[in-house]
């Protein structure tokens, strides 16, 4: 299905079904992968990455803090290292998702261990969902993702056209007048 057919689907009698019509973002064959792990899951992620080293080697790999340092040393691959999660690394990954600099996220997080930066973790996962990038949160889902036939080819990722959201009208108070957000900066690089 091409983008014109998708847009047509979202219209009924010339009226849009939804305010946010999807648009296509092409993911290239060499993916931009973020690898993140909480402390209790770093060993699992390292074992997974060692097992999948050959598959990871032709992709661009990002990682936060200690995870990035450990992966680079153990795998012998170039890893783009960001800050540790609690020091802003999760937010850096989220910003890269928004800017289309990361295609998908492998995040081995520990559901049984509270972390002080839990709001950052939630925000990171939210950005992955908002921008419709694949997410693996455990070894099984990471295995399925890395071995997918979609992994090594181009993939048309559909995301809502957020220009409608960016240009929405906001009620500013007592006067009842609406203020348009039109002209709000769009930060997404496609």
Q: In total, how many beta strands?
A: 11
β-strand percent reads: 15-25%
User: Number of DSSP helices?
Assistant: 8
Shape type: globular
Mean pLDDT: 85
Our measurement of the CA-to-CA distance between the termini, rounded to an integer number of angstroms, reads: 20 Å
- The ordered H/E elements are HEEEEHHEHEHEHEHEHEE
Structural class, by secondary structure, is: alpha/beta
Give the biggest beta sheet. 5 strands, parallel
**Range of helix content:** 25-40%
Model regions low in confidence, pLDDT < 50 over at least 5 residues: none
Instruction: Work out the radius of gyration.
Output: 19 Å
Strand line-up in the sheet with most strands: 6-5-4-7-8
Structural account:
With 190 residues, this protein is an alpha/beta fold. Helix content is 35%, strand content 23%. The chain contains eight helices and eleven strands. The protein is globular. The model has no long low-confidence stretch (mean pLDDT 85).
Summarize, please.
This protein is α/β, with parallel strands linked by helices.
Keywords:
8 helices, 190 residues, single chain, two-stranded antiparallel ribbon
Secondary structure: elements and pairs:
Blueprint: H1 3-9, E1 11-12, E2 15-16, E3 22-27, E4 32-37, H2 42-51, H3 53-56, E5 60-64, H4 65-75, E6 79-82, H5 89-98, E7 104-108, H6 118-130, E8 135-136, H7 139-146, E9 155-160, H8 163-166, E10 169-171, E11 178-180
Parallel strand pairs: 4-5, 4-7, 5-6, 7-8
Antiparallel strand pairs: 1-2, 3-9, 10-11
Helix pairs in contact: 2-4, 5-6
